[in-house]
Amino acid sequence: MNNGHLNLLIGLAMGLNLLALGSNRLPSLIRVMSLQGVVLGLMPLLMERIDWQVAAVALATVAGKGLLIPGLLRRAMRAANIERELDPFIGFVPSLLLGAGGTIAAVALARALPLLPEHAGSLLVPGALASVLTGFILLIGRAKAIAQVCGYLILENGIYLFGLLLIHSTPLLVEAGVLLDLTVGVFVIGIIVDRIQRAFDSLDTRKLTALRE
Amino acid sequence: MIPFLLIIVPLAGAVLAALWPDERSRPWLLPAVGTVHVGLTFWLLFNPPPVAPDAWLAFDPLARAVLPMVSLLFFVCSIYAVAYLRLRQERPNRVFIALLLAILGLLSAGHQSRHLGLLWIATEAVTLAAVPLLHFNGTPRAFEATWKYLLVGGTGIALSLLGSFCLGYASLHGGGEGDLTFVALMAQGAGLSRPWVLIAWVLLLVGYGTKMGLAPMHTWKPDAYGEAPAIVGALLAGGVTTVAFTAILRVRAVVSAAGAGAMADRTLLVIGLFSMLVAALFLLGTRDFKRMLAYSSVEHMGILSIGAALGGAGVWAALFHVWSNGLTKGALFLSAGNIRRAAGSASMDEVRGMAVLAPRSAMIFVAGMFAVTALPPFGPFFSELRVVRAALAQPGHGFAVTMFLGCLLFAFFGLTRVVFGIVDGRPRPGTRAGRRFVESAGVILPPLALMGLSLWLGLFTPAVLQEAWSAAVAQLFPNP
Known about the structure:
The complex is a heterodimer. Helices cover 72% and strands 0% of the residues of chain A. Chain A is an all-alpha fold. In chain A, helix 1 (3-22) runs antiparallel to helix 2, helix 1 (3-22) runs antiparallel to helix 4 and helix 3 (52-80) runs parallel beside helix 7. Chain B contains 18 helices and no strands. Chains A and B meet through helix 5, helix 6 and helix 7 of A and helix 5, helix 6, helix 8 and helix 9 of B.
């Protein structure tokens, strides 16, 4: 595995996590997420062995995470005609601090876990953990439905990073299933966003409060 | 071949339903496919097929112990669905029927998955397929419930995938070849890398626990069950949760083979008791009888989790409880659906005197409530008794048993409070003025049949089922 270049990309993805936490406008959040998707898609190409399965994963990731899904989200944003400002539950600075602290914790935790020799110097595990954490912060800390979807996608990106550890050993089925389900999932979420819009005339999940004890 | 038919027939039915031109005759596809499916599963229950050890999909003992219940529940619900959809002619039913059939096929796939990745794909697909069913009613409240279901459920699914990857890495780190069938993982046993197994267990328990509705990951449940049509609630509570439960059982067997079984059992016990406690407390407070069913479901998922923590005898009891709870919950959901239609509301602030307005549904609802709170001679009493006996057979579970019984008591108070609140009393003035709800055979016989099955399960637990549960326990505990 070409560790140096791969680590550079993972570092970039981790930086994009922090950028996503600091974004205060929806279009910039979507742009950050789409860029992260492209970065993630390039990673399999830096693996030591590139067969057609790995190439297919790379292509599908760039197309799905980098182009298709951000496109869908932008369309949903335009169709819903919502304000571009993100008003957060957790402020941007606290989010960033949480994210930075989480990234450090992820690196520390990953050092405690046993890794195979070929993965030893890699940032894949800390990168994965940090992205999952970033996703959670966005899921919990943002009020707009589309921002929550972005958080969910960053969480999925973290899982994808972890999956790269297994890309040579798990059969194609699992990988294909991951990508398919991700796309379908967001597609469904997109439809829902559309419907929420029609029902509430807003994409603010804070208005979803009729159901409680 | 037949195990594949269990998946292919419903999926083909789903495609057929999507293409079927006539709105009025389309609902009949549900009982048609349901009949074939229930026939096939029961044939397989009595004639278990040989299972190739390395098969990814097979009707193995664990599938045999649970899948017939799901199939039976679907069959009864499908008959109810015909009558229900006749009442709901104002809403197009193409998507609803196609997805119900797809869910049956995907549940069959999930129960028969012997591969970590395949199991995850099936569970994910079931979750997504259920989304449009939840907002069948099209109200803003239904959208809100769907959104919460999607966010919480989606996160749960993501975590279970991460857990699956961790388990895969545990195998790879231990020198495995990347074979993620449960058989291979169990065979690797102590060779699995322990830190990774522990992480995988936590993530998979949280992930599949979300799907099952264990507290504190249960938050989607009251909203989804409260707003979904009765059949969808019954199938979610009796079918979708069981596929997550069998997933946890399969993973637990791997963790146990890796030498961390005691830790897994402790977490299952704690999360199970916590679920029962949370459910009991919310049951004392809720005023909506459909949300009440959701909390009752959280409570029973807790019981399943506790059973799974108690070794072979406990898992046997839990499998018994999967049957008794699934069928009884089905009866409760369907009769609650009738009451909801007759009363026009699900809140006990607005609903009274249902014994007058919908006497038969109210009778089934009360009987179901007694059954689900573990009054003899219904099924849940005997299965919960088995759980308690499994706990008492092991030393040091005195506190857990006390808490278990205490939670059951509080749940009983909570359930009776709501149920008698809506059944008793005089109907509210004005309730009768609207069009009267007719308790036709189509909406009464299915829940009645489910109650009958629950009673029969309690009084005469069939030998073939007992044998199937024992075989499943033998599969999960290869060297007791």
